[in-house]
Amino acid sequence: MIENGNLPPVTSPVWKDLAIPIETLPNLRRVDCRGKLYRSSRQDLLSRADTEKLKELRIQSVIDFRSKSEYKVANGDKIYDQNSAILEVVIPKAKGSGQSTTTKQIISVNVKPVKVKSLKGIQNKEIKNLQTLNDDHHSAINRKRFLLDFFKLHFVWTVFNRIPLYKRLFSILYLIVDILFRTHFRYFIRYFAKETLNPAGLLSSYIDMIELSGTQICLALRILSDPSNLPALVSCAHGKDRTGIVVAMVLSLLGKSDDYIAEEYALSEIGLDPIRPRVHQEIVGRTRMDESFTHARRETMDGLLQYIHKTYGSVPNYLESIGFGKEDQKKLLQSFQE
Asked: What was the pLDDT predicted at 116?
């Protein structure tokens, strides 16, 4: 157990039990005792030899909390995705609003295929939802990769509107530069980080994610509730933030204590240690986010869970509020127990 907010040593029983050593896939570990769920950093840089090692886990689906563009521009050969169905999860819209719905009951997970020229992926324009894909299974498809964007326009717009109007107007200059030079919004993101993310801190970003990306969390849990998608691997860029939040929701439903969830989250500090310079470059160097955003310290997850308990009473109550009700929670538990 972690005490006084310190990180677990490499000899931590939890780390020894959960960690899976694959050199080119840092932060890979098992989440549940039955091996239905794993978590890791992005798989784009997997070597061919390590790809074969990862295949031994028989992963049926990867839930990737990156946008389609974030996935496409990420460097790496993406060997693991060859002969995979790469699917963008469609975020439903609330009626009469441009915002994503978080209270509407989401019945099915709708998807659309993503074309990646450099990959020999299976493309099927007939795919509309999970059931269609599962029923019309193609023998050449090894697995499904679901791209589930956490940071849709509603998220960015809500957080950005917290800064003064004159600063918002000034940011248009950065946006114009990004568009003209096709920088993938590098300078706008840096300004965004300086004015909004850094002053608020990492915990505030986590709170924003559960409040503004609830639909995405609900959809991820629905994908995990389908036994045909298990075993599953959840990941994002580094496997600690977006991934950490969804894993925390799953572990809570599986009956794990807040202490265990916070300790499991903090294991990413060990898991990412081999690529610490790369993490620093991608977060601090590229986006100008504060150094604290490169870490996975226990107190951050402790703070998020305390916020959920104070605001909603419990994690199950929070999940109900975003459309993942009691019956849905029961179905997820059954999928993990089969």
From this structure: 81
User: What is the C-alpha radius of gyration for the chain, rounded to an integer number of angstroms?
Assistant: 19
Q: How many CB atoms lie within 10 A of CB 296?
A: 22
Q: In 3-state terms, what secondary structure has residue 235?
A: strand
Question: Which stretches does DSSP call E strand in the chain?
Answer: 29-30, 37-40, 61-64, 85-89, 111-113, 144-147, 232-235
Task: List the domain range (segments joined by +) for residue 19.
Answer: 13-337
Q: Which two tokens stand for residue 11?
A: 């000899």
Q: And the tokens for 12?
A: 């931590």
Q: Is 74 inside any structural domain?
A: yes
Q: Are 150 and 242 in contact (CB under 8 A)?
A: yes
Separation in Å, CA 314 to CA 85, 215, 249, 309: 36, 18, 10, 5
Bond prior to 231 in cis (omega within 30° of 0) = yes
The amino acid present at 156, given as its one-letter code, is: V
Please enumerate in sequence order all residues whose Cβ is within 8 A of that of 109, keeping only pairs 6 or more positions apart, or say none.
89, 129, 130, 146, 219, 222, 223
Question: Residue 37 pairs with which residues in a beta bridge?
Answer: 232
Instruction: In whole angstroms, give the CA distance from residue 87 to residue 115.
Output: 9
pTM over 0.90: no
CATH number at residue 19: 3.90.190.10
**What is the Cβ-side half-sphere exposure of residue 270, based on CA atoms within 13 angstroms?**
22
What would the pLDDT profile of 107-151 be if each residue is shown by its tens digit? 578 999 998 876 755 444 445 555 555 554 444 578 999 999 999
